[in-house]
Backbone:
């Protein structure tokens, strides 16, 4: 096939683009040397939409596979840990630069194996960022766009996995695949469409303890056993746990709704500790905020909740996601680049 | 049959000029006897056909004879045959467009479409497509081109309109979409049929097939009431001499019915060789979780293959409900200790059941209306209604 250009550039940013952007002062904060103004440091090729009026890129404007790999590693190791700017700025930069990597994967028509290697860390990064920035204001972070890209990357990876014979993958590659397949399931919790995929998977994946746990969580969700979903999510590892925790607001709402029916009474009360234990909130004050929002009354001594069917506000939108203590503890204990780059799982 | 090519072609000519759709259809069918006749295996039949037949039937016949040629090769070349069968469909589309205000030719379209789908399936099975499902998807596109012509024919009178051919095509398309797992593509077709004025005038066999598929679709969309209605129609009207089809319908109808609170009779399951459901129903009736899990595990492959695994797993809460009802009947009181439920659950196999989870399960059953009552947390008791605390499931919405 001659229709595809093969990259030859070994720099993270092709010379042409670098020259132009330095001249026009179009550098990002992270591209200046030590944050100094006007002194350019390490540039990374930025994303630009393909459009009809654009010329077909030349080989020297595209990077080699090894170079793309280096680029992903640079972004997810050096930049992701950079604390000079708030994380939403870090995210914007990495998101854009990874997008251009993704564009080159398509333009250079990489095969399934090549694509997966580059795509897996991107998925990890998007998952991590989706959680880390979930409390950010919409001006700083758009969860919709992040999720769209995440879903697209996940599906792309799944298609590639299907092309590769699992018997030809080594152990680490299989571990990575299991992790990504699990992310897909947790990210799409509640979708029968996604769950159908579980049945098509090879035993190497299906029987893996981590994936089996994820499958159980999904099954419990479809059965309506939310107790097990809450518990299951809390026992997942780091990033997977983070993605699972994004579903907690929906689950909590479901739980309050069930309880508003089952414990509905004018006199009877339900202890706060009991509900707190189930809903995975770190403190009762978080629970109280939920209750205030859904109009569940609190006793005067703040020890009990007063559920009533007619009080519960059914038509309110689900609360926004927030960072959860149990997730933060898990994430604090990992060395982020190692996990994002799937060096260890 | 027919002896020579010319004989065959003149028979086609007669059927064509007589406007005899059924006979003409049999002449281009890959199930008809004439395909055994080696004289008809012609690689380039254009001249012979051109001498005897006029447009547009000539193109259809050329394509058909080429299909025969490639199927007659040793080994058979299904890919080429498929290619010419899709060409045949394109010519059929032309014919449909030319024969305005008449629909006698519909059987020809049915036959050509059916053969195309079966050839595409064969190609898929032999691993000819680069991505699984690709050939079938292309075939579906071909069928859609016929569908569009039929659906757009709204000027002819009711008895001569090609819209009467829509349902046959829709059934073919459903078969493809279910096979390649693209259920979302069914939606516009369903809308087209349901809004059609001929909804109840289509032939019964087609309506049965249609209901079977929309029933399955409703099932996947968790709309069990409609699924029950559609599948029941299909099962009731499907004639006895099609036991294989009846069995297929039953595989979906039974779990849907069970979810709605109806248990299947053993002799019917036996007759159609789906006793797996009998075991499931027994466990369900007893409220025996261990047995229920065991049945699902033993027949896992069957349930997954039929695409009802998730559905039968959903029956679990009904197992819980039945177990709780047993506890209620033993205890003979309206105030039931939740510890008794937890113990019962542990006894039937949920060994890691905690009291918190028991609360959640009971809460869910109350929410769904499967138990009438409320929980008093401070007393750790479920207080059930004096009237009908466990309403029959078929009355619960």
Residues:
């Amino acid at each position: 096939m001659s229709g595809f250009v093969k990259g030859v550039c070994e720099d993270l940013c092709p010379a042409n683009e670098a020259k132009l952007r330095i001249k026009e002062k179009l550098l990002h904060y992270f591209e200046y040397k030590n944050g100094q103004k006007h002194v350019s440091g390490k540039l990374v090729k930025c994303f630009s939409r393909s459009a009809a009026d654009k010329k077909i890129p030349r080989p020297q404007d595209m990077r080699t596979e090894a170079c793309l790999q280096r680029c992903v590693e640079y972004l997810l190791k050096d930049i992701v840990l950079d604390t000079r700017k708030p994380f939403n700025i870090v995210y914007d930069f990495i998101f854009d630069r990874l997008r251009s990597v993704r564009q080159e994967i398509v333009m250079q028509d990489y095969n399934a194996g090549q694509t997966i290697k580059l795509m897996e860390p991107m998925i990890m990064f998007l998952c991590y960022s989706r959680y880390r920035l979930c409390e950010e204001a919409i001006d700083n972070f758009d969860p919709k766009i992040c999720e769209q890209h995440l879903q697209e990357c996940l599906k792309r990876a799944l298609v590639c996995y299907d092309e590769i014979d699992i018997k030809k993958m080594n152990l680490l590659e299989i571990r990575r695949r299991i992790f990504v397949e699990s992310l897909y399931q947790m990210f799409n919790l509640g979708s029968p469409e996604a769950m159908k995929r579980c049945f098509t998977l090879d035993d190497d994946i299906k029987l893996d303890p981590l994936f089996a746990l994820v499958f159980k969580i999904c099954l419990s969700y479809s059965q309506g056993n939310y107790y097990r979903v809450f518990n299951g999510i809390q026992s997942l590892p780091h990033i997977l746990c983070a993605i699972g925790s994004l579903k907690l607001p929906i689950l909590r709402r479901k739980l309050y709704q069930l309880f508003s029916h089952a414990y509905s009474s004018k006199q009877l009360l339900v202890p706060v500790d009991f509900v707190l234990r189930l809903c995975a909130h770190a403190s009762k004050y978080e629970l109280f905020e939920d209750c205030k929002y859904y109009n569940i009354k609190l006793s005067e001594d703040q020890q009990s909740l007063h559920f009533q069917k007619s009080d519960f506000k059914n038509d309110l939108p689900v609360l926004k996601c927030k960072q959860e203590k149990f997730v933060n503890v898990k994430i604090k204990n990992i060395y982020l680049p190692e996990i994002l780059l799937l060096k260890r799982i | 049959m027919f002896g020579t090519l010319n004989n065959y072609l003149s028979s086609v000519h007669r059927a064509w000029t007589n406007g005899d759709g059924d006979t003409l259809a049999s002449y281009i069918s890959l199930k008809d006897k004439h395909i055994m006749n080696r004289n008809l295996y012609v690689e380039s039949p254009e001249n012979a056909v051109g001498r005897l037949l006029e447009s547009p039937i000539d193109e259809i016949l050329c394509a058909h004879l080429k299909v025969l040629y490639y199927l007659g090769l040793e080994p058979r070349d299904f890919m080429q045959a498929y290619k010419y069968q899709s060409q045949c469909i394109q010519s059929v589309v032309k014919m449909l467009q030319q024969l305005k205000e008449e629909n006698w030719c519909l059987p020809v379209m049915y036959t050509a479409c059916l053969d195309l789908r079966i050839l595409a399936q064969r190609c898929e099975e032999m691993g000819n497509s680069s991505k699984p499902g690709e050939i079938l998807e292309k075939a579906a596109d071909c069928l859609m081109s016929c569908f569009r012509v039929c659906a757009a024919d709204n000027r002819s009178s009711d008895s001569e309109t090609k819209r009467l051919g829509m349902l046959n095509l829709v059934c073919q398309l459903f078969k493809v979409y279910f096979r390649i797992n693209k259920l979302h593509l069914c939606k516009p077709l369903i809308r087209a049929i349901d809004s059609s004025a001929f909804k109840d005038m289509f032939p019964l066999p087609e309506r049965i097939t249609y209901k079977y598929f929309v029933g399955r679709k409703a099932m996947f969309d968790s709309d069990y009431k409609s699924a029950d209605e559609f599948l029941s129609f299909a099962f009731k009207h499907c004639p006895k001499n099609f036991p294989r089809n009846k069995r297929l319908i039953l595989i979906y109808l039974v779990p849907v019915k069970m979810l709605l609170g109806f248990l299947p009779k053993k002799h019917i399951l036996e007759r159609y060789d789906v006793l797996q459901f009998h075991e499931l129903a027994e466990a369900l009736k007893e409220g025996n979780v261990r047995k229920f899990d065991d049945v699902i595990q033993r027949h896992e492959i069957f349930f997954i293959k039929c695409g009802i695994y998730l559905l039968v797993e959903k029956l679990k809460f009904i197992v819980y409900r039945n177990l709780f009802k047993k506890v209620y009947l033993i205890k003979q009181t309206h105030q039931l200790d939740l510890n008794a439920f937890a113990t019962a659950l542990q006894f039937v196999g949920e060994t890691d059941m905690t009291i918190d989870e028991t609360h959640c399960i009971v809460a869910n059953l109350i929410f769904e209306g499967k138990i009438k009552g409320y929980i008093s947390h401070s007393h750790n008791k479920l207080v059930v209604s004096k009237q009908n605390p466990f309403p029959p499931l078929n009355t619960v919405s």
